[in-house]
Amino acid sequence: MNERPSATPVSRRHALGGAAGVGLGLPLLAACGGDEGGSTASDPTPEVAPGEPLTTTADVPVGGGVILAEEKVVVTQPSEGEFKAWSNVCTHQGCALESVTAEGIRCPCHGSVFDVATGEPLSGPANSALAELPLTVEGDSITLA
Ligand code: FES
User: Fold this and answer.
1) How far apart are CA 76 and CA 101, in angstroms?
2) What's a Pfam family in this record (predicted)?
3) What CATH class is the domain 53-144?
């Protein structure tokens, strides 16, 4: 029984990780910075010229849509025969939108979801609508106008 009272605090600090705990915390803080979990595409200019084929009507599900990552465009079909095109750049911090689900157009970075019919955010942190892009449908071909 030779324990000294001062030995206990040192032991607790080591048990909690001490400096190693601080080191582990830094990557977690960096992950909150905005670019983790998705690619950044902050320039909303589409990478396709007006009139160039973008996709076909058959590739865009009714009530959903497709992400065209290379073109930086999201094409949706809110109701049968109604097509919309949006910039795939999230209005929160500029991440590239990554998927279209039953809930809407999802951003992988912080979880914003946008309406497939209006581009308005359904859940944040984004608080402004996606940039709508004018499109043309000719036969089954969809192009930007
Ligand atoms: S960049 Fe933050 S939710 Fe899209």
Assistant:
1) 11
2) Rieske
3) mainly beta
